């Protein structure tokens, strides 16, 4: 059996990953401090963080399972089982890498949702100020209907309503744009993970067809495994198809190109709009070591 095609030649802890960065922490206080408007999205983002950690864990466990399968196959003293189990381990390792890449892509999607949450948080004070002034006016009308302070409060209410009107428009603009952007990333990542794992599973099944399961009677000796080269070719073909994979995605159409830096349609000249909240920076694309790692198990196995 050609050991260059084996995952056994690597150290036992080669697949050990760093501890997940999605560790649980005492964040109750942070949740309490969230503006009422952004609490639900804050909770969603936090839950998604836990889900991402689960995908990372699944990827690490898949790598461990691949190694254990290879070790078990070697211990059977059956050349065919030993070779096929080792190569299936290579396939399973690549499937595990896809879980890790998927988790990293979800981080980008999650970062986009945070932009909506930040805008929601910035709009809350505007709503609160408008409600506060309205309450003060109602109380003053009840206690001192002729108070000269009413005029001042009503003027303040007009300004607060104008500012809130702009803030609400900004919120709906950024929410619609970023929901499309976020779930475009999410669904594209889901498709990539699914299609690449389908490729890997397809070649894993081809490996199974190289294993002769014809029953033998006591005393018979199995023929030597004759499909070493074919098994190597299966891994080589899997690597080639994985490397040449390209997404075939239905485009997500957007009319948000006319959104200005003040989160209002380009050309909006309202002074209030100009003084609105600062634009939120575009999400920073995270580095994806898993994207670079994908195919490495196949590559090293077919080298």
UniProtKB/TrEMBL annotation:
One of its GO terms (cellular component) is eisosome filament. Residues 251-303 are annotated as: Disordered. InterPro entries: AH/BAR_dom_sf, PIL1/LSP1. Residues 150-177 form a coiled coil. Residues 265-283 have a biased composition (Low complexity). GO terms for molecular function: lipid binding. Transmembrane segments: none annotated. Keywords: Coiled coil, Phosphoprotein. GO terms for biological process: eisosome assembly; endocytosis. PANTHER family: PRIMARY COMPONENT OF EISOSOMES (EUROFUNG), SPHINGOLIPID LONG CHAIN BASE-RESPONSIVE PROTEIN PIL1. This is Sphingolipid long chain base-responsive protein LSP1. The lineage of its organism: Eukaryota, Fungi, Dikarya, Ascomycota, Pezizomycotina.
